[in-house]
UniProtKB/TrEMBL annotation, chain A:
SUPFAM superfamilies: P-loop containing nucleoside triphosphate hydrolases. SMART domains: AAA (SM00382). This is ABC transporter ATP-binding protein. One of its GO terms (cellular component) is plasma membrane. The lineage of its organism: Bacteria, Bacillati, Bacillota, Bacilli, Bacillales.
UniProtKB/TrEMBL annotation, chain B:
This is Branched-chain amino acid ABC transporter permease. Signal peptide: none annotated. It comes from Lysinibacillus telephonicus. The lineage of its organism: Bacteria, Bacillati, Bacillota, Bacilli, Bacillales. One of its GO terms (molecular function) is branched-chain amino acid transmembrane transporter activity. InterPro entries: ABC_transp_permease (IPR001851), LivM-like (IPR043428).
Length: 257, 317
C-alpha cells in the first residue's frame, strides 16, 4: 500500500470540505478521484501535499505518517503533484522548469555552485540530461529553450507533468490533467499516464473527463459534498446508484440543496 | 602621460559609482527571490559604523574591519530575515524601511558610541592606509609618475572595481545554478516552488542575508572611502535612491542594477553645469522611464534579443 488516507476531515470555518474520508492506493495503480465540482477533490490533494493540514485524520505514505510534514519534505519523500490551474514558472525555459523539479534529488549549495566544483558540474550535467529525457517523454524536447508562458495550453500541462516526474516521485498526483484538452491531446495524455505507470510510478488522478477516467483507472473513489460516496473499479462505479444520482441528480437534488 | 589623465575628481565619482553598484546589487539579490527589501540603507549603515568604530578604536587592519562590517550586517540580515518571511511585497518593503529608520535613530541617539548626528570623523581612509603601507617598503607614487592623491584615489577605484567584478561574478554564477533556479522559482511562484521540494525558508533567508551582507560591505567601503560618516548618510532617502537604481536599470537582470547605479550616479554629475535644474532633470528622466518602460531599461526579453537567442513563438509581453 503506497498511500493510505485515514478518516481525514478538513473544516474551513465551519464548512466541511472533507468529512471522514478513507481510502488507500496500492502500488502501481492508477487511482481516480472524481466527483462534482466542490466535492473536495483538490482539497484532498492539498492535504496530501500539506498545503494545509487536515482538521483530523491521518495520511500514511509508505507506512510513514506524513500528515504534518512540510510540503517540500513530502516531495522529498516521493509525492509530487500538478495543479488544476497550471502553475509553471512562466519566465523560465521549459528545460529549467523541469530542472527545478529535480531540486530535491540534487544538493549543490552556494559554495559549490559559485565555484563550479567537480561534483556540481557532474550533477548539473545529470540534471540537464534527465530533464531532456523527460521533455522527450512528454514530447516537448524541441521547446526546451522556450519560456513556459509561451507554450500552448496542452504543452504546459505536459510540461507540468515532466516537472513533477523530475522529482523522482513514487506517487504522482495529477489534478485535472485533461482539462481544456482536445480529443487528440487527451489521447496522448492517456498514453503518457500509462507510460508513467509502466515506469513503476503510482498515479492518483482527479479528472472530469469520464471516458478517460473509466479507461485509465484501476480503481476510483467518488467524493460528493466532502464525503466518500463510493469506491470501486470503473465498472462498479458506473453502475452505482448513488454515483449516478450525484452526477445526474434525481428527485433528491432538492433535498441536498 | 598617465598623471595628466587621472583626475581625482573623476576617480572619486567612479568610486561612488562602484559603491552604488554594490548597493544596487544588494537590492537585486533579495528581489531575485521575490523579496522587496528597502533595508539596504540600514544594513549599509551597520556595515559602515561597525567597520569605522572597530578601526578607530581598536586599530585593527582595514580589511578585517570591512569584513566585520559586512558580516555584522549579514547576521542582522538573518535575524531580520526569518521573521520577515511572513511578509511579502509592499508589506516587506515597509517593514524593512522601518528597520532602516530604527537603525538610523539608534546611530543618532547612541551618542557615547556614535557621536550622534555629528557622525564619526577620522575614519582611516583606504587609499591613504595603502599609501602609507607601501611607503613602508620605500615606495613613492612619484616612481610611477603620480601625485600622492592621484595614487590614493586610483588605488581605491581599483579595489572597488575588483570587488564589484567579484560580486557580479558571484551573483551570476549563483544564478546559473541549482541555487539560482530555486531563487527564481520562488520569485515566480512560491507555492509551486515549495511543492517541487524547495525549502523556501532557507532560500529566502539566504538571499535576504546575501543582500544585507552586500549592503554592509558597501557601507564599510563607503566609510573608508569618505573618511567620515553620519546617520544622514543612511537615511530613508538613501534607501529609496538605492531602490531606484535597481528599478530604473531593470530589476529582473543584474545588468539592470549595474546600469541603473552607473547612469543615475553620473546624471547629477554630468549636469553639474546647470546645478539648479539637475535634480529636476533627474526626476523627469525617472518619470519618463517609468511611463515608457516600467520594467526598467533591461529585462530578460531585451537581453535575449541582444544575445541573439532564438525567441520563442508567442508574442511580446
Amino acid at each position: 500500500m503506497v498511500l493510505k488516507i485515514q478518516n481525514v476531515s478538513k473544516n474551513f470555518g465551519g464548512i466541511n470540505a472533507l468529512k471522514d474520508v478513507t481510502f488507500s492506493i496500492n502500488e502501481g495503480e492508477i487511482y481516480g478521484l472524481i466527483g462534482p465540482n466542490g466535492a473536495g477533490k483538490t482539497t484532498m490533494f492539498n492535504l496530501i501535499t500539506n498545503i494545509f493540514e487536515p482538521t483530523s485524520g491521518e495520511i500514511i505514505f509508505n507506512g510513514e505518517n506524513i500528515t504534518a510534514l512540510k510540503s517540500y519534505k513530502i516531495t522529498e519523500k516521493g509525492i509530487c503533484r500538478t495543479y488544476q490551474n497550471i502553475r509553471l514558472f512562466p519566465q523560465m525555459s521549459a528545460l529549467k522548469n523541469v530542472m527545478v523539479g529535480g531540486h530535491c534529488r540534487s544538493n549543490a549549495g552556494v559554495f559549490s555552485s559559485v565555484f563550479r566544483t567537480k561534483s556540481q558540474r557532474k550533477e548539473e550535467q545529470e540534471l540537464t540530461k534527465k530533464a531532456e529525457e523527460l521533455l522527450e517523454l512528454v514530447g516537448l524536447l524541441e521547446f526546451k529553450d522556450t519560456f513556459a508562458e509561451n507554450l500552448a495550453y496542452g504543452q504546459q500541462r505536459r510540461l507540468e507533468i515532466a516537472r513533477a516526474l523530475a522529482s523522482n516521485p513514487s506517487l504522482l498526483l495529477l489534478d485535472e490533467p485533461a482539462a481544456g484538452m482536445n480529443e487528440k491531446e487527451t489521447d496522448s495524455l492517456y498514453d503518457l499516464i500509462k507510460m508513467v505507470q509502466s515506469m513503476g510510478i503510482t498515479v492518483l488522478i482527479i479528472e472530469h473527463d469520464m471516458p478517460l477516467v473509466m479507461k485509465l483507472c484501476d480503481r476510483i473513489t467518488v467524493l460528493n459534498f466532502g464525503e466518500k460516496l463510493a469506491e470501486g473499479t470503473p465498472e462498479e462505479i458506473q453502475s452505482n446508484e448513488a454515483v449516478i444520482e450525484a452526477y445526474l441528480g434525481k428527485e433528491e437534488e432538492e433535498e441536498i440543496a | 602621460m598617465l598623471a595628466d589623465i587621472i583626475n581625482p575628481y573623476f576617480l572619486q565619482i567612479l568610486s561612488f559609482i562602484l559603491i552604488n553598484i554594490l548597493l544596487a546589487i544588494s537590492v537585486y539579490v533579495p528581489l531575485s527571490s521575490g523579496q522587496l527589501s528597502l533595508g539596504s540603507a540600514g544594513f549599509m549603515g551597520v556595515g559602515a559604523y561597525t567597520s569605522a568604530l572597530l578601526t578607530i578604536h581598536f586599530d585593527i587592519p582595514l580589511i578585517i574591519g570591512i569584513l566585520a562590517g559586512a558580516c555584522v550586517a549579514g547576521i542582522l540580515g538573518i535575524i531580520v530575515g526569518i521573521p520577515s518571511l511572513r511578509l511579502s511585497g509592499v508589506y516587506l518593503a515597509i517593514a524593512t524601511l522601518g528597520l532602516g529608520e530604527v537603525i538610523r535613530v539608534i546611530f543618532v541617539n547612541w551618542e557615547s558610541l556614535t557621536k550622534g548626528s555629528i557622525g564619526l570623523t577620522g575614519i582611516p581612509q583606504m587609499g591613504r592606509e595603502i599609501l602609507n603601507f607601501a611607503k613602508g617598503f620605500g615606495f613613492d607614487p612619484a616612481m610611477i609618475g603620480l601625485k600622492s592623491n592621484q595614487f590614493v584615489y586610483l588605488v581605491i577605484v581599483l579595489i572597488l572595481l575588483l570587488l564589484v567584478i567579484a560580486t557580479i561574478w558571484f551573483v551570476v554564477r549563483q544564478q546559473n545554478s541549482r541555487v539560482g533556479r530555486s531563487l527564481s522559482s520562488i520569485q515566480m511562484d512560491e507555492k509551486a516552488a515549495e511543492s517541487m521540494g524547495i525549502n523556501i525558508t532557507y532560500y529566502k533567508v539566504l538571499s535576504f542575508t546575501q543582500g544585507a551582507f552586500l549592503a554592509g560591505l558597501a557601507g564599510a567601503l563607503f566609510a573608508h572611502v569618505m573618511g567620515y560618516i553620519s546617520p544622514s548618510d543612511f537615511s530613508y532617502h538613501r534607501a529609496v535612491e538605492i531602490l531606484i537604481f535597481t528599478v530604473f536599470g531593470g530589476s529582473e537582470v543584474i545588468l539592470g542594477a549595474v546600469f541603473g547605479a552607473t547612469f543615475l550616479t553620473l546624471v547629477p554629475e554630468v549636469l553639474r553645469f546647470i546645478s539648479d535644474y539637475r535634480y529636476i532633470i533627474y526626476g523627469i528622466v525617472l518619470i519618463i522611464l517609468m511611463a515608457v518602460r516600467p520594467q526598467g531599461i533591461f529585462d530578460i526579453h531585451l537581453l535575449n534579443r541582444l544575445k541573439g537567442l532564438k525567441r520563442s513563438k508567442g508574442g511580446v509581453r
